[in-house]
């Protein structure tokens, strides 16, 4: 068992760390799964042989050297040299030879960032592990998941068995196909205030921590409620077919990009989104921040009893959390005035409205002047998840940006149009019509 986070939490000095490491029976064991590297690399080399031959012929014809070398440093500060073909197609696949000859692994120590010296020391004393083309951290970075720290992810990866190793290779290949090969710096710079333009909307390009800080920071203009929306594939499709909804989205104080579809679209527009700022992942961070900053929440929406169940679950999870009231979202007699009075009387700082798009966005904008809370968020099916009435997709699906498939399986009738029809339409609008760049509708 590799232990990294335990050591960070107890803040060992190097000397005590060395002593404590002696107690772990796993010191210097090999990373499970790496025995699969050679056969998998060989299989891929054989499949890609025609492409390699083209690259070799091209190099010979243009009198270039066959390979170019890429110098990298892994997270443990070790130098790593990777091969790429100097010309031709899929030039980076030459790295398969590095894997075959045991220079690096498919999965191993990441090449995308550096660990702190104490963590490097812990890892090197506990396990023999090469640098890896893929890592769990890189996978989470590609899909914008920000639930675990890099140390937690490395610990989880290194403690995995051979099946986990194989699964990580498959998931990483899929994420390369879906999200491109490399994590690059943004090609374009955000326009202003950390915002960028997607489909004609100003979307905040923040990390999860920055988004939470923005929401829970008391930066409101006095007596004005800040309106926050999360925009995803569904809301973009709605905004393109309904100009009124587009205007409503434009009137928010902040729009956060939610989901892998927005990530893909941003990449097409030349931006790399800092995080997957979806409400479901964000809520625990908001709760933690509310406890720290002594701010309160109000839950409005979902079927009767659901918001209260979600509130109870979150209060159990975050001791000290103040949820000043809940109200369901099926008010047939349209008693919005009464609900607003109840929200205002509760004195909440942050209001979460969960009635689905576009109802929740319209409700918030129609009533923003009467609301007295600092911030109000439209959060979709959030209370259904936190009350336990709808389960969240398994991590492996989220790691490849396919959480929507889980929701489709759970509610096939309700979500058919949104996902089965909506997703291809979104891709067509993004990649064929190029609406992501221009915002033309
Ligand atoms: N809802 C509501 N009032 C309505 C219609 C829907 O409170 O009149 C709730 C519904 O019970 C669900 C949420 O709004 O909890 C919408 O969830 P959806 O799955 O559409 O949200 P998203 O996928 O956008 O997160």
From TrEMBL:
This protein's name: WecB/TagA/CpsF family glycosyltransferase
Q: Which GO terms describe its molecular function?
A: hexosyltransferase activity
Query: What highest taxon heads this organism's lineage?
Result: Bacteria
Q: Which CDD domains match?
A: Glyco_transf_WecG_TagA (cd06533)
Instruction: Supply the InterPro entries for this chain.
Output: WecG_TagA_CpsF
Mind listing the UniProt keywords for this protein, alphabetically?
Glycosyltransferase, Membrane, Transferase, Transmembrane, Transmembrane helix
Q: Does the keyword Transferase apply?
A: yes
This chain's source organism reads Colwellia demingiae
**Would the keyword Transferase be found if you checked this record's keyword annotation?**
yes
Please give the start and end residues of each transmembrane region: 40-60, 80-101
